[in-house]
Amino acid sequence: MTIVDLDIAPEAGRRPRRAMPSRSVALFLVGLLTLFLVNGSVRPSPPFGGVLWSAPYDRDDDTMTLTPASLYLFHHDAGVPALKAYDLASGALRWSVPAPDVLAQAPSVAGGVIVAPDDFERYFNRPDLLLARTTRTIARDVHTGLALWRAAGAPEDVTDQSVLLVDAGAGGADQLRNVSLRDGRTLWSRPVPGLASLVVVGDAVVTAAANGRLTVLRHVDGAVTRTGKVPWSEGTRLSAAAGRLIVTRQDATGQTSTVYRPDTLAGLWQADGPLTDCRPVLCGVDPGGLIGYDPDTGARRWQASAMTVAQPVGDDRIVASSELTGAFRLLDPATGRRVGTAGDRYLLGALIGCRSVPGYLVCVQNARITVTAVR
């Protein structure tokens, strides 16, 4: 179940601040402009064609979903929440529909359908902290915004064929349902008592109960293919990266991540701290810097000194950054080698949550979302 954590006390007359949700990493600030400054010696460096358009954006309240042709923006206009679809190239508004006051998770787009929260419930609320979860999901046509179906539950995974929903139901009895993307009809359903976490790894759905019991289901029909048990305590997190299952536990000494095969639940290796997906390696951090681990053995393939955070920007590139100095490097994730001849770059402006698709760079800066052409 998705949690929105509003961790900053609001100003008078202002909505509580919301931390952007993420499955694996807390808020990550990255200027992807660095990418285009550094990689010229390896690929043609695409010059910026200038800002195409911009729109107001509150990073504490709003969310965006980016596709190669469209930008979907959840925004509070004069306090009235709406989900809007923009043409990415021109900024033309295609459609706008009412939205719930809080989106506990960002919408997802697949197969010509946008899947978004349609209702929510607060289960903890005070001036500086709001915990909310999605209670109903809506699917809309991406071209018109017309509603295709509504269903109880929160979307956990969206594919071109189906949407995986978790419905808390009456009395907190969690139900896992896979429904058709186009019409919302149920493809399969099964109870998931005591659900603490859920992740999709390839063709498998892995659920974790509060006692550490793992159950592996086939995505196509919900059939159980494997069960097992792992050490579990409050705050333990289930994630997936590089096709592997990761269980991250917190104790008095810090975090420990254990990597498992998702098909057999066989334990492979452990590392201190959280692990993230760096395609094709798993990335972690130790006092020496950013590390690229072999997903199967845990062997260190490379280390980037002084770097502390990694963000994939394609199948064969990552931006490594330092939270201490603001330095950025473009790296080949397979080898850890620096791409290009330029040295480290530094984040000089408040570029937040930049994202890219072929031909466009979308960034949040100075309370606006800005779309820039990259040719």
Automatic annotation (TrEMBL):
Top-rank lineage group of the source organism: Bacteria
Gene3D superfamilies reported in the protein's UniProt record: YVTN repeat-like/Quinoprotein amine dehydrogenase
Residues covered by the Pyrrolo-quinoline quinone repeat domain: 49-193
Protein name stated in the entry: PQQ-binding-like beta-propeller repeat protein
Organism: Paractinoplanes globisporus
Taxonomic lineage: Bacteria, Bacillati, Actinomycetota, Actinomycetes, Micromonosporales
